[in-house]
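Sample A.
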Amino acid sequence: MIIPVVFRCNASSRVGLGHLMRCREMARLLTERGHVCAIVGPSEDLREPNDAKLFSRWIPLLGDYSCEQDARDFLAVCREMNAVHAVMDDYRVDPAYQASLKAHGIRFLQQFDASKPWDFHADIIVNSNPYERAEDYAAYVKNPNARLLLGPRYAVLRPEFSALDIRPAGRPVQRILVSFGGGDDLGAIRLTLEALMETAGAQNVTAIVVSGNSNPRNKANENLIAELPKGRAEFFMHPKKVAELMNSCDLAIIAGGTMSYEAALCTLPMILVALAPNQVRPCRGWADKAGAKMLGTIDNVTRSMIRETIEPLLADTAQRTEMAVRGQAMVDKSGGLRLIAALLEEDAI
């Protein structure tokens, strides 16, 4: 039986593109099984050629919608497609919006922002943050039949990571991944590169800078890298083979978003900088559970903080190995499959 599934996704240069990546991967898994997907929210300029295969409809919602209006428009799309299954990957979907979906018979999976606890009416509540515990949600879950899918086992990774031959933990640091999502890096790339240039022991290390098309600082970052000594940094904007690129690195200085799960899978010890409030708790989770180094939020991290964290880590193989092993043990390649199975009430993976 063909099942239509409608996605609500919030993605932009300001918000970042992690939500859209997750939606694309879940849509890929659904369409491979013969189902039909539509996506509501992202602007047309975020569409990629392969999206035509993933989404039968792409419906932008531009401007600041009220949740009430957003819910009405989203439900209209569900009615047009005869859809009763939805994925809400938009942190603005408030309790009233959720209750409206339930009142109209929509079975939905909700990815949410751990920094803003509120009532949940979803059938499946997802948070892949390493810190999450079921008992923390007891006061907020209003759907008695809701399933809580918590922790990195439910992280959705890009499909190219499933084919990687993961390198062993504890390798010497020759390449450092520097990346802060697909949107605005808020100056974190420049700050990190400047710190690396000042770090003792990093003279023979190459920074592998990965940025999305939507980052308004791309040109400035590219100009900065061009001024650095040869071999100190390489710039990759929206690379097609991001998994291979990440797997070629030995350490990661990144934000607390989706890439942190992919870095963990690739046995990369992580130094984390939160770019938004919703990344603080995941960063702390990686620090607590995997030994990652959390520096703080972008507005209070300094070059000296980055330098003083990297320098001893470059010389400490045992610590890097432990960080990498602990992180990799928390992530596998089946998070997306688990979410799809839960949404469609199939056998658990």
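Sample B, a different protein:
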Amino acid sequence: MMSIVIINYGDTTYFRKLIDSLDNKEMEIEILVGTFDKINKDAEGKIKWIYLDKNYGPPGNRNRVARYAKGDFIVFLDNDVVLSPDFSVNISKYLDHSSILQLVLMREDGRIDSAGGLIDKLGYPHEIGRDQRFTSQEVKEILYAKGAGMIVPRDVFLKLNGFDEDYFYGYADTDLSLRAWKTGYRVVSIPVTAIHYEHGSFSSDEVERKLRLAFLLESRRLYFVTKNFEWSFLLSVFPKMAFFFLGSMIKDIVIRKDFSLFVTRFKAGTWFLGKLTEISRKRLKYRGKYRLGEKELVKKGLIIDH
């Protein structure tokens, strides 16, 4: 059995399309939906509604709903994803207990929105296949899968203690994927597609959106790298990390003349520094439990040069 985990907040149009796409009798599933709204008692009995007392962020919300999962595999889907009619037929041949799977998320125009990604040595994400046409039928190793459409064996999810909730937004799926690799599992993109409408959760105001994305990218990246990279690898890339981070702040003032962006990066650095104690605790917790290091992931082409 597969457990479908969805977080839905106030949406009806996209969520309805997703639920309709799950109406497939060939697949034994349970549908678990986390919501902050009052439970809709008129909803279909096939949905198990789980009330969340507040917004814990995508990783925290997903962790809380996944606690109720009974299936061998947990399918994490955004509420604006629609599965293909032949999903249950296609997915069965790829399921195994040693791999996290990434669905190929497609836009309505037939181009790839996400097929997972790689990271560079500074922790920046590099999306695979974005904006390209979907043609490959191969299973490809990737560094990370995205929570909008990823399948995790339940036993693996429990062994990894789920998503790291300290991220709140951004990088938690990348973090889970890297920890999976380092613990001895694989992360792969499979040729099974789903439509991702991606109606977005950020402000439509371009300036506000830019600043919000900059804060999340920089703060979570610093947290992710410092928490997860083994010491020898971290020390080798730290000078370059500091150079690029401080250099970007100087450019914000001197070249871009964007003081608000400078302040945003400063806040990102401050957020990261406030997490150093927690990072130290987590590094101690995982010490000695990893089988694979960053150097091996570089050799596999999953961590690339900046």
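Observation for Sample B: The two ends are 41 Å apart (CA to CA).
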